[in-house]
Design brief:
By secondary structure, the chain is an alpha/beta fold. It has two domains: about 1-80 and about 170-258, P-loop containing nucleotide triphosphate hydrolases (Rossmann fold, 3-Layer(aba) Sandwich); about 85-165, no CATH class. Helices cover about 40% and strands about 25% of the residues. It contains eleven helices and eleven strands. The chain has helices spanning about 45-50, 75-80, 90-95, 95-110, 125-135, 150-165, 180-190, 205-215, 230-235, 240-245, 250-255; strands spanning about 5-15, 20-25, 25-30, 35, 60-65, 65-70, 80-85, 170-175, 200-205, 215-220, 225-230. A hairpin with a 2-residue loop joins strand 1 (about 5-15) and strand 2. Helix 4 (about 95-110) crosses helix 5, helix 6 packs parallel to helix 7 (about 180-190) and helix 8 packs parallel to helix 11. It starts with a strand and ends with a helix. Bound molecules: adenosine-5'-triphosphate. Adenosine-5'-triphosphate binds near residues 18 and 42.
């Protein structure tokens, strides 16, 4: 068993009378493929926001590689290797994938102030960018403005931008959401091929993706951890099936992959 790389200890988040995170103690091992699932309103987004530092917990702590990061800003956490996927904003939409990735790679390498020099001046940056374009199946569209890319390719670029920062822990929030069926294969394949030494925490409603990807699943219900375990244990768990009653996807996914 590898060491935990990311942990929460008795995390609690209250919004007025609502407890959106109830005493959650999560442990993500180095290199894990860890999925967080739960019905709508289970508290997945609230938990991720406390991991990234967007939300401060009411009580409890977040620990990255043994270091308490509960009080650190989102940027400081990225610097320590806790990275979530970017939403491509207006600025990035006007850049090409090559330019956007060069910006991300340069910022990791501490060269951001030199980014606006013509590309190619830093051979190391160019090599990193080329590798990411290949890895994320973006090479053919590398020099088109991002806003012209098919939706699935934009989602791939979002993951590539996060990977460009060389995370220790990568938080993937619904990478396949809204992606048309024809483009989903690319997402599944690239997510499956993420570097083995990076721990990946996936939030996803698509149970086929969850069960094809995860080696460990934590189930949240009403802000609390209902259970966790290997995918086959989760798929066979009567409590989990009860929570998903009426949602046959988990039964189907467990039967297919579990
Ligand atoms: N800023 C907020 N203020 C008040 N209540 C909130 C806030 N954010 C979330 N909540 C509440 O906390 C609970 C958990 O919400 P959260 O969005 O974390 O769930 P989720 O599992 O991500 O749901 P979904 O799968 O629908 O995105 C819900 O009851 C929600 O209404």
């Amino acid at each position: 068993m590898s060491q935990p790389v990311l942990q929460t200890h008795a995390l609690v988040k209250r919004f007025g009378g609502i407890t959106a995170t109830q005493n959650v103690s999560l442990s993500v091992r180095a290199g894990a493929r860890h999925a967080l699932i739960g019905p709508n309103g289970a508290g997945k987004t609230t938990l991720i926001n406390q991991l990234t530092g967007v939300l401060a917990p009411t009580s409890g702590s977040v620990v990255l590689e043994g270091r308490d990061i509960t009080a650190l800003s989102p940027n400081a956490r990225v610097g320590l290797g806790l990275v979530r996927t970017f939403q491509i904003n207006q600025l990035f939409a006007s850049l090409t994938p090559t330019q956007a990735l060069a910006l991300a790679v340069s910022s990791r390498r501490g060269l951001a102030h030199r980014f606006w020099r013509p590309l190619g001046q830093s051979a190391e940056v160019a090599a990193d960018v080329e590798g990411l374009l290949q890895q994320f199946r973006l090479a053919e569209l590398a020099d088109r403005p991002t806003r012209e890319l098919p939706y699935g390719k934009r989602r791939l670029l979002e993951i590539a931008l996060a990977v460009a920062l060389k995370p220790r822990v990568l938080l993937l929030d619904e990478p396949a959401a809204g992606v048309p069926a024809a483009e989903r294969g690319d997402i599944l394949a690239t997510v499956a091929a993420l570097p083995a030494d990076v721990a990946v925490v996936l939030i996803e409603h698509d149970m086929d993706l969850v069960f094809s990807f995860a080696d460990h699943i934590t189930v949240l219900v009403n802000g609390a951890m209902l259970t966790e375990g290997a995918p086959d244990e989760i798929a066979a768990d009567p409590l989990v099936r009860e929570v998903y009653l009426g949602d046959t996807s988990i039964v189907h996914a467990g039967g297919t992959h579990g």
